[in-house]
Amino acid sequence: MLEDRIKGAKFLVTGGAGFIGSHTVDTLVEQGGRVVVVDNLSTGQEQNLNPRAKFYCMNLADESLGDVLECEKPDVIYHFAFYVLVPKSVENPLLDIDVLTGTLRMLQKAKDIGVQRIIFASSGFLYGNTPNLPATEECPVDPVSPYVIAKHAIENYLKFYYNTYRLPYVVLRYAAVYGPRQVTGAMADYIRKLSSGDQADIWGDGTKTRDYVFIQDIVRANLLALTVPADHPNPVFNIGTGIETTLNTIYQTIADILGVEAKPIYHPDRAAEQLRYSLDISKARRELAWEPRCELDEGLRTTVLAYTTRRSSQRP
Questions:
Q1: pTM confidence score
Q2: 157 a catalytic residue
Q3: Strand spans (E) along the chain
Q4: What pLDDT is attached to residue 93?
Q5: Contact (CB, 8 A) for 20 and 121
Q6: In angstroms, how far is CA 257 from the centroid of its own chain?
Q7: What is the DSSP letter of 214?
Q8: What is the per-residue pLDDT across 250-265, written as a single tens digit (0 to 9) for each?
Q9: Tens digits of per-residue pLDDT, 168-197?
Q10: SS3 of 95, please?
Q11: Which residue of the set 56, 83, 147, 162 is catalytic?
């Protein structure tokens, strides 16, 4: 039973004050897990921290992370900490160096203290501009950005540590995750600007597509990753919907929910952009018994309402 794998177990969650991390922490705590959060609060927020989780404010690359792991001795590590703004990684590829250094130190210590499993939040962006959509896990990696290169490097390090030291891992390649608490990325910007009476920027003509998956569906996948056999020969799973939606459609839908006019500000497209994006989730359906439950319209309404409610509560 999944519940038996969570209740009483200790989980260390990197990026546990962030968007995906904090929702996962909340569910782990609710189901009886003991949770330790490591986050430097660069994009994570204190208000997202679960009061029942132990918190260490530190950068992943901080050498004292090894002391935290030695002290806490988690059974499972959820690794969410990452610099998430892909265009910024294109402008400055050095942004991902800290997370690579920190991940390697973490894996070395995890091997030494006997961590039972590492679950890594990877990305469907790894498939780049493949013409084969929806993309399966077998599609080749297309290094369209330093962000993709860094994510894939960590996947390869995980495979190395399993092959060499039998440190079990699961890789979840997420589609475009959205939902309450999201503060970075295009959709969050659309909601923030449109709800304030402004218009948001779109790079390109808005016909780029993304595969949008709601945060609670992601959390279920994160928990189901605990059921993957430790000796799985290829524990890599796409987590998405398989449905392409254009940026223009997302923008218009958010505007309609807010009851405002949609007149995005278009700019010439940026370098290293992914033009189309959807993930084949057959493997997750078959092996994890996972599939998305939240329809996009419902998820968007929930997300917009959460943002406007939170903004109202923060006003003096």
A1: 0.96
A2: no
A3: 10-14, 34-39, 54-57, 76-79, 117-123, 169-174, 176-178, 201-203, 209-210, 212-214, 236-239, 245-246, 265-267
A4: 84
A5: yes
A6: 25
A7: E
A8: 999 999 999 999 999 9
A9: 999 999 999 999 999 999 999 999 999 999
A10: helix
A11: 147
